[in-house]
Amino acid sequence: MDWFEDAKLGIFIHWGIYSVDGISESWSFFNNYINHDNYIKQLNGFTAKDYRPKEWAKLIKEAGAKYTVITTKHHDGISMWNTKADKAITTLQDAAAKQDVITPFVKAIQEEGLHTGLYYSLPDWSHPYYDVFTRNRKRYELKSEPSRWDNYVKYYQKQLTELSEQYKPELLWFDGDWEHSAEEWKAKETLNLLRKYNPNIIINSRLNHHGDYDTPEQGIPVTRPEAKFWELCYTMNDSWGYQPFDKKYKSPNMIIRTLV
Length: 260
Description:
- By secondary structure, this protein is an alpha/beta fold.
- Helix content is 32%, strand content 13%.
- It has ten helices and nine strands.
- The chain has helices at 2-7, 18-21, 27-30, 36-40, 53-62, 102-111, 146-167, 182-185, 187-197, 252-259, and strands at residues 10-13, 67-73, 78-79, 89-90, 115-121, 132-134, 137-138, 171-175, 202-203.
- The strands form three sheets. The protein has a five-stranded parallel sheet with strand order 1-2-5-8-9. It has a two-stranded parallel ribbon with strand order 3-4.
- The longest helix has 22 residues, at 146-167.
- It is globular and about 50 Å long.
């Protein structure tokens, strides 16, 4: 944790097909604000035509950040790299961009000497092997179809193997662990899998009690978290992904005061 404790500032890039219509990432269909078919249609508008990973990497370094985290897959199940995992939806095969957008970004940040962090959602609400679909609808019950759940665990662990082999991340930023227990996620096995590729990999607190540091969101803790290491994940406005109506950007003064 030496470099992490010293890094102080990281830049989190929350990017996915939800930026096309500027709607809530994944949650918009999970909460039934939009149906899943219409949500997925955003793949047709995801062109990444203004994507400039080298410029992004330079800006991150110029901002004084020492590490960065980018979404490889959010809860909607859209994989932003060329995954070979079974039944995956990808920006390379299924989006208008026809691009693996993670590879050029990781290459750019590593050329800038930044520490590599990858966000990965444990749930995949679009995947046929995953049990949860929306807030009020399930595909199946784990007890009645345990082999189907086992196939999902194999699916997500294969994706983590790909990310480990291709990008050699120094930090894995998990999300969504609340939907299942550590035993159901096979969290211990997943941690051992990641450590096989990098014995020093840093894991946030969302691998269901198998992480290295706490990750409070948005609200600045009134008192220091109990964990020795922690990170405040703080958005530039009020939204995680791009939403055109959200103009409530935090001032430089507010951000600096928060960091100090």
